[in-house]
Specification:
By secondary structure, the protein is α/β, with parallel strands linked by helices. The chain has one domain: 6-pyruvoyl tetrahydropterin synthase/QueD (Tetrahydropterin Synthase, Chain A), CATH 3.30.479. About 25% of the residues lie in helices and about 35% in strands. The protein is built from three helices and six strands. The chain has helices at about 55-65, 80-85, 100-120; strands spanning about 1-15, 30-40, 70-75, 95, 125-130, 140. Strand 3 (about 70-75), helix 2 (about 80-85) and strand 4 form a beta-alpha-beta unit. Helix 1 (about 55-65) packs antiparallel against helix 3 (about 100-120). The N and C termini lie close together (about 10 Å).
Length: about 150
């Protein structure tokens, strides 16, 4: 398998983990970054696993989800209040099943693979995403999409 990686950075957002017993239940934020690792069993016509210039749509999806946004868990007991503040223009709300870095890595992995499959029909795939909240802390999701298993 050929591999390459691409880093996407500069996505300041905030979130909270409402059921956490410690300080993580308070609203806090990071400037998130994501590193995607791509694989392919064959290179494209230009000799690339993934042409990085073709990832503008993925970067746009990351910006829409994470750039100056407030991330809320779908089961947050204050979700109605966050929605009210969003409606008032006080925050830019995004609701996710889980706003943690591990789940965010999975979210990015899904978006990357949707894009790659639509574009390449399975020639290339994303096999790992690292979601980083700062230089000390990161979380990863790693898996080959089912359609890439035979590649």
């Amino acid at each position: 398998m050929y591999t390459c990686s691409k880093q996407f950075e500069g996505f300041p957002c905030c979130h909270r983990q409402p059921s956490h017993p410690g300080h993580c239940h308070f609203v806090h934020g990071y400037s998130r970054s994501f590193t995607c690792w791509f694989g392919a069993s064959a290179l494209d016509g230009y000799g690339f696993v993934v042409d990085f210039s073709s990832l503008k749509q993925l970067r746009q999806q990351l910006a829409e989800q994470f750039d100056h946004t407030f991330l809320a868990n779908a089961n947050d007991p204050l979700l109605a209040e966050w929605q009210r503040l969003h409606d008032l223009g006080a925050l830019n709300l995004r609701v996710m099943p889980n706003v943690g870095m591990e789940a965010s890595a999975y979210w990015v992995w899904e978006r990357a693979n949707e894009l790659l499959y639509q574009r390449d029909g399975g020639r290339s795939w994303c096999w790992q995403v690292e979601a980083r909240e700062n230089r000390k802390n990161a979380a990863c999701w790693q898996a080959r999409p089912s359609w890439a298993a035979s590649a």
